[in-house]
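Severity: low
Component: inverse-folding endpoint
Summary: output formatting inconsistent between runs
Steps to reproduce: submit the following structure tokens with default settings.
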């Protein structure tokens, strides 16, 4: 054995002494037995853009509470498989749950069968009120005498107006006389009687022809409009209780109260949901940052879920000098260092904003893999060569 070692050393010294002084000839690496690992060299860039990268899940979720509170339960551990909709953790939420229950009871009371029956009765009453108001309005404008009597009364009104005008003219010259003067008294009485006669004839004409006074007409119209509005609002409310579609601009105090009850329930549920972390995706829990009994701070990542069933690559140091040559859909070759394999893919996203790495400006690109080799895991480092365009 000593002889073999000495022989090897002599060979090495001999080869070293025979090499030229300017450069040494490298010795080949010899693997005895043929059982050692082989390496896959990164592809030759040939002038195309290259970058380092990392394998990442296509989907992951970073979750944290939006409100502060004491953690009541943590239902998962790192490495657990979860499905979308699973409750992962929750805060003490007894008060929030009570608020949800109260708001739910209020809404159920407003939408119960008894409430629907009461709304149907309100609609029926509103229909009767409208009918009465319409009848009253119609009767005010309905003629109550023959055309002949109406025409005669109109003619009498014309004569009475003329008589009133003459009486007024006769009163003017004596209006400055002292009270008690017989001439002034007679002129005043004549003018007053003429006015009363005209008023009587006008009232008779309005009654005969169905033409009410302006005040009576305005009041009747207002009552009719109010009855119509009340009926419409009661019908909208009943339709809402029955789940029927109503116009977006529908109004009514009861309708507003019902909407407020719905808003109160939605707000209570939102407050309750803020006390729970629910998985938005299916995947593997990779991080849990707390235990039951601790105080959770809002905005802090508490649980991270990754869907490792689908992986992709993100570059970490693509230079600003190289990014102009990279296009969406461009083919790439990816060297997975840990597996010693090359796979292909294509660019699906180029970040529109840059980041800095060691003072250099870089852009992240996302690459979809054409195939996923066995053993590939999130977090593995890769080299990426973009094919020349």
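Observed output (run 2 of 3):
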């Amino acid at each position: 054995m000593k002889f073999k070692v000495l022989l090897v050393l002599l060979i090495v010294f001999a080869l070293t002494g025979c090499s030229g002084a300017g450069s040494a000839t490298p010795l080949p690496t010899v693997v005895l037995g043929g059982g050692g690992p082989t390496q896959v060299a990164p592809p030759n860039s040939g002038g195309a853009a290259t970058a380092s990268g990392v394998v990442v899940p296509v989907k992951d979720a970073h979750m944290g509470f939006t409100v502060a509170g004491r953690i009541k339960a943590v239902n998962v551990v790192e490495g657990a498989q979860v499905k979308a909709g699973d409750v992962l953790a929750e805060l003490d939420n007894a008060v929030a749950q009570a608020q949800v229950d109260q708001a739910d009871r209020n809404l159920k009371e407003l939408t119960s069968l008894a409430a629907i029956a009461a709304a149907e009765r309100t609609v029926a009453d509103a229909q009767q009120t409208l009918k009465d108001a319409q009848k009253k309005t119609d009767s005010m404008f309905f003629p109550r005498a023959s055309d002949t009597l109406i025409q005669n009364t109109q003619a009498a009104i014309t004569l009475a107006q003329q008589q009133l005008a003459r009486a007024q003219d006769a009163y003017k010259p004596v209006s400055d006389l002292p009270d008690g003067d017989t001439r002034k008294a007679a002129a005043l009485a004549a003018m007053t009687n003429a006015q009363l006669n005209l008023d009587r004839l006008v009232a008779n004409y309005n009654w005969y022809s169905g033409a009410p006074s302006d005040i009576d007409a305005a009041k009747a119209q207002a009552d009719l409009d109010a009855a119509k509005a009340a009926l419409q609002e009661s019908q909208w409310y009943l339709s809402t209780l029955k789940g029927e579609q109503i116009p977006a601009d529908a109004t009514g105090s009861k309708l507003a109260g019902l909407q407020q009850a719905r808003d109160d329930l939605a707000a209570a549920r939102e407050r309750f949901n803020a006390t729970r972390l629910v998985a938005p995706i299916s995947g593997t829990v990779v991080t849990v940052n707390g235990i039951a009994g601790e105080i959770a701070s809002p905005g802090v990542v508490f649980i991270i879920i990754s869907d490792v069933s689908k992986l992709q690559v993100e570059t970490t140091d693509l230079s600003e000098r190289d990014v102009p040559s990279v296009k969406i859909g461009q083919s790439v070759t990816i060297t997975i260092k840990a597996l010693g394999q090359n796979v292909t893919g294509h660019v699906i996203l180029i970040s529109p904003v840059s980041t800095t790495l060691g003072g250099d400006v870089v852009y992240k690109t996302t690459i979809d893999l054409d195939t996923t080799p066995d053993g590939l895991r999130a977090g593995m480092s890769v080299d990426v060569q973009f094919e020349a365009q």
